[in-house]
Write a structure and sequence with these properties.
There is one protein chain. The two termini are 32 Å apart. Helix content is 40%, strand content 17%. α6 (133-144) packs across α8 (182-193), α7 packs across α8 and α16 (393-410) crosses α17. The chain has helices at residues 30-41, 53-63, 77-86, 92-99, 119-128, 133-144, 146-159, 182-193, 211-215, 224-227, 231-246, 251-258, 266-274, 297-304, 326-333, 393-410, 424-434, and strands at 27-28, 66-67, 103-107, 111-115, 196-202, 205-210, 279-283, 290-292, 313-315, 354-359, 362-372, 377-385, 414-421. α16 links the parallel β12 (377-385) and β13. It has a domain at 338-435. Mean pLDDT is 90; it is low at 1-23 and 170-179. The protein is α+β, with helices and mostly antiparallel strands and 436 residues long. This is Winged helix-turn-helix domain-containing protein. It comes from Dyella jiangningensis.
């Protein structure tokens, strides 16, 4: 068994960790840290009850944000991330949550859905530290296309919400944002600058309106006190929220969650540990401290006592928080992962849209899939188990069940199995599927 999966009762560390008085210094085996992370993300156990609309907002609140991506080889990523956590739910619930103001769109990790209650934090951060590439790009665009952008904004102010498709311009750009027509790029620029927001989506197409009109329908309403937080307080809030969402983390992984700059360091976290706002722990095979939010103190205790058990098998989106940070996925799970849809086809190792396979607390493999919606077919082009994973009967049965659950939820219930690694797994999976 590789080192990243060895359980250790104690961890030898020469690093001095500051632990608040009265709180035991937890020491976790790596597998225990994996389970703590998955528990915080809502992926350790199968959903206990049938999903309800409120669970969509609750899941986003647990993660703090839900990254948006428009690739729809299968379901678009935000819907897939929620399916991994909620099981069989109606994707329209996400659209309804946006239209009703319970969630909002903003730039966070990237373009993301965030809980309405958190939007003031992002608004304040944008106004104080407009460092994101989208804001810089939009500012430059407004300087270069002021007349057209101002005219577009005036049209929405007078005529109401609009989609990019409501503009009939034939002019196309040779570069820029994906060679969109000017109006599409201008809408995105006003969104990045904060003048426009997304009031709803129609077939995943953004419908833009004045920010003031979108903010007026937020549920809960904007908290003015959060808007008054200074940069230092906002940064600390994002750090704490990131640690809570990650369950357990090294300092170097924290900044990526909200794209904070500069990077977060152990030195910066030391006062938070001393104040009891974070807990410092040891994790086997890590030569740096790890951090846990006090809200997860009970989960931490359960993990340290070996009481957290992974019982869930599901497919993850390539843009799931569990795998979007390659360095974190490698150190935490021993899972080397690249989103290969952005890699030239000849250089891809596994496929265009590859879904990590989560099985009982471990990332055990990945599959290249494509949904053929008209035919109702969910095609598994290829399935790869990690080299150290033994394809037991239970593992294969639960992987087949997870594939079937995703296919059924997506409306493509017929599963077509392709090649596998190891090759012997293909026949077993087909037999399991026929025997369902």
């Amino acid at each position: 068994m590789p080192p990243q999966y060895r359980h250790r009762e104690r961890v030898k560390s020469s690093l001095p960790l500051s632990i608040p008085s009265g709180i035991p210094h937890a020491r976790l085996a790596l597998a225990q840290a994996q389970r703590l992370h998955l528990a915080a993300q809502g992926l350790l156990r199968k959903p206990r009850a049938k999903a309800r609309p409120a669970d969509v907002v609750a899941a986003i609140s647990r993660m703090n944000l839900l990254q948006i991506d428009s690739i729809h080889v299968i379901a678009r990523s935000p819907y897939m991330v929620l399916h991994s956590r909620l099981g069989d739910y109606d994707p329209a619930w996400l659209d309804d949550a946006l239209a009703s103001g319970r969630i909002a769109e903003c730039w966070a990790h990237e373009a993301c859905f965030v809980p309405a209650s958190d939007l003031p934090l992002h608004q304040a951060w944008r106004m104080q530290r407009s460092m994101h590439w989208a804001y810089k790009h939009a500012s430059r665009m407004h300087r270069e296309h002021r007349e057209g952008m101002d005219s577009l904004l005036a049209r929405i102010r007078e005529g109401g919400a609009a989609r990019a498709s409501d503009f009939e311009s034939e002019q196309r750009s040779a570069g820029g944002w994906w060679s969109w027509k000017p109006e599409k790029r201008w809408l995105e620029a006003w969104f990045a600058l904060g003048e426009l927001m997304v009031t709803r989506r129609e077939r995943f197409q953004r419908v833009y309106d004045l920010a003031e009109r979108v903010l007026a329908k937020l549920d809960p309403p904007m908290d003015a006190a959060l808007m008054q937080m200074d940069h230092a307080a906002l940064r600390q809030r994002f750090i704490l929220d990131s640690v809570r969402a990650l369950g357990v983390t090294q300092a170097r992984w924290i900044a990526d969650y909200y794209r904070l700059k500069p990077a977060v360091t152990d030195r910066e976290l030391a006062p938070l540990v001393e104040a009891g706002q974070l807990l410092a722990v040891d994790v086997a095979d890590w030569n740096v401290p790890a951090y846990v939010h006090p809200d997860h103190a009970e989960l931490l205790a359960q993990a340290a006592e070996g009481k957290l058990r992974g019982t869930y098998t599901t497919l993850l989106s390539p843009f799931d928080p569990v795998v979007w940070d390659r360095a974190r996925a490698q150190a935490l799970f021993g899972f080397e992962y690249t989103i290969e849809c952005y890699v030239p086809a000849p250089k891809r190792r596994y496929g265009y849209y590859v879904l990590p396979i989560l099985h009982r607390g471990r990332l055990v493999g990945r599959l290249d899939a494509k949904a053929h919606r008209v035919e109702g077919v969910f095609e598994v082009k290829a399935l790869f188990l990690e080299p150290d994973v033994q394809p037991s009967e239970r593992l294969l049965a639960e992987v087949a069940e997870a594939v079937g659950a995703t296919a059924h939820w997506h409306g493509t219930p017929k599963v077509r199995w392709g090649r596998t690694r190891p090759a012997s797994v293909a026949g077993a999976l087909r037999a399991l599927w026929r025997g369902r």
